[in-house]
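Hi R.,

Here's the chain you asked about this morning:
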Amino acid sequence: MRALTGIQPTNTLHIGNLFGALLPAVEMQKTYDLTMMIVDLHAITVPQDPAQLRKNILFLAAAYLAAGIDPEKTVLFQQSQVPAHAELGWLLQTVGRMSELERMTQYKDKATAKKENVSVGLFTYPILMAADILLHDADVVPVGEDQKQHVELTRDLAERFNRDFGETFVVPKPIIRSEGARILGLDNPEKKMSKSAASAKNYISMTDDADTIAKKIRSAVTDSLPGITADDSRPGLKNLLTIHSLATGRSITDIAAEFDSQGNKAFKDATATALIDFLSPIQQKMTELLVDEFALIAILAKGAEKAAAQANTKIQLTKAHMGLVL
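And here is the predicted structure, written out as tokens:
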């Protein structure tokens, strides 16, 4: 079976990205024919500094590889280097409906709720995401709960196109990772950890040093109740238990039982140590990879060649079915 996933190149990758996307992808490459994209065309739906964006693309490539993605097993590439993505994005815009895009949560949040003057690209990017998925015949798409809506749109577009123009696209299914898929903000455990949060205390970056990680964990919002329990009514504490569990491979209940009588400080200190130990080899590998930019660029170029072979075949079939090939 084929799977596809992608992350936008931003200058802050946090542990939510690592545990929710990168590491699950490493596991997926063992059993799926996996395609992984650096979705730079999605990134430019909001203003970007060109020089910084270039650095971010290389940084994300290094993060993928350091986390364990094997470019010999997984097709790893930069989205904009395969023009068929943008081309199919346009063709699918002629199939999509305004009402469908107006229902998209991210657009409603930024353009309607916050009254921001957003780009047209932010409005239409769910269709570009659909093109990304459909170009590569993805059977499954691992996403967070907040992206499930976009995969549902992709399914609708694929079914509509197949009905109107003939069998063309695989109709994909979303895979929602339940544990660790939604790491919450350290300063606000009511909302998802976010690199765009107002305070850096909200998230732990993949490049934070040991002292910074320890300080952020110690200052994480919990509660004043006694004991350490894995209770959904204690979201801050449950969030730290989840992080500890992901870093050690131990169950949340076992961790809670160990520290229940030791108190909050001992638990937070142990959680910080576990996370620092987990991140250290990944951080070291990323540093080594970023020393040689040309090697990273070569890996992405090779991946783009593989991705283009699949994408170009699919775009030609799509255009033929629409009557665009003479």
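One quick note: The longest strand covers residues 2-7.

Cheers,
M.
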